[in-house]
Amino acid sequence: MTASAAGKPGLMPVAEALARITSGLTVLAAENVAVGDAVGRVLAAPVAARRNQPSADMSAMDGYAIRFADAPELPVSLKVIGESAAGNPFSGAIATGEAVRIFTGALVPDGADTVVIQENTTREGDVVTLVSHTAQGRNIRKAGFDFRTDAQLLPAARRLNARDIMLAAAGDHATLSVARRPRVGIIQTGDELVYPGQGTGSLADVVVSNVYGLAALARSVGAEVVDLGLVRDGMEETRAAIRQAEDMGIDVLVSSGGASVGEHDLMAPALKAEGVDLAVHKIALRPGKPLMFGTGRRMRALGLPGNPVSAYVCAVLFLLPILRRMQGEEVPLMPTRPAVLGAAMAANDMRMDFIRARLDFSDGLPRATPLPTQDSSMLSALALADCLLIRPSFAPAAEAGAPCEIIPFNG
């Protein structure tokens, strides 16, 4: 095990842990999904347009399609010879002195090069009079105005949002090639744990919460999540849960609890007994020092602390990069943003701190103010936080207004 930057054996720097945890990751196989079901998925291949958009010259307004040469001076009267509506184009061509009634989204008739909006005309019967000047070519969206056939619309490795889905559909794609969803299995260990609403009434009961937060985080980056249940404190029970995850084809097994070194902390020995090679265990990190990570025959295992805040922070730092990289998404391992301190901070020790903080966007860079309670069991404080405020190992004391780095919780 690598010594920390502080020289203390057994504590691995966060950056080294991140590098080890994400090394050797391969992108999951691609699959085709319906374009309407692809939001939140990561493209496995670029998306190119299969047609021009628009496919032909189309009217941008309701009005009249004319030959600009017929309107050198105003007013001028033209004969209306037909109508062009979206989906029902005019079948002929416009000759000298003629006009076609046209509607937004309709094909511009042959011979026309300008659309005059209806507010700039008057009409009696089949005669329209142009009363206000319109520049040549006005109010026409030319073929390929938005994009042309074979133009790249979306790059590979892009996580698709609603706007991307609209663009791909407009490019005539009924299906898209995306990375398979990672399968995440979650187990939480401890004899004291009960599911919400299923307690025994004993004061020793601890209502499980980690599994729900971890599942929500994993789903937020496109993963498929399987709750593998609560695992009692026993070596055989723990090993059986690990084997179950492998048998189910889980890509990443996430455990919460049992990651430390007490008599009831069985996750590390159970993982080793099931052939998982632990490359990371004990990080110079606060909260989350006991975190562990290893690779097995068919899956990766991320062992998180049992304290709820520690589990959540470690999942943000380590689980999300794993899942994003497995889908081919090209993102920083630690997506930080600049901010300034909202309060003075004392000097830090050897462990890199990830402090729950509120953000104030009143002016300039966001201002990050630590919450008064930083205990790793306090979910009420975590729910109030907007970000993680990063304090590097051995950071000197800093005054309010000093620059800092944050990881926002909402993008």
UniProtKB/TrEMBL annotation:
UniProt cross-references to SMART domains, sorted A to Z: MoCF_biosynth
Cross-referenced InterPro entries: MoaB/Mog-like_dom_sf, MoaB/Mog_dom, MoCF_biosynth_CS, MoeA-like, MoeA_C_domain_IV, MoeA_C_domain_IV_sf, MoeA_linker/N, MoeA_linker/N_sf
All copies of domain MoaB/Mog, residue ranges: 185-325
GO cellular component: cytosol
A Pfam match: MoeA_N
GO BP annotations listed: Mo-molybdopterin cofactor biosynthetic process
Reactions mediated catalytically: adenylyl-molybdopterin + molybdate = Mo-molybdopterin + AMP + H(+)
Keywords carried by this UniProt record: Magnesium, Metal-binding, Molybdenum, Molybdenum cofactor biosynthesis, Transferase
Molecular function in Gene Ontology: metal ion binding; molybdopterin molybdotransferase activity
Catalytic activity, EC: 2.10.1.1
Broadest EC class assigned to this enzyme: transferase
Cofactor list: Mg(2+)
Pathway stated in the Swiss-Prot or TrEMBL entry: Cofactor biosynthesis; molybdopterin biosynthesis
Function: Catalyzes the insertion of molybdate into adenylated molybdopterin with the concomitant release of AMP.
Name of the protein this chain belongs to: Molybdopterin molybdenumtransferase
Organism per entry: Azorhizobium oxalatiphilum
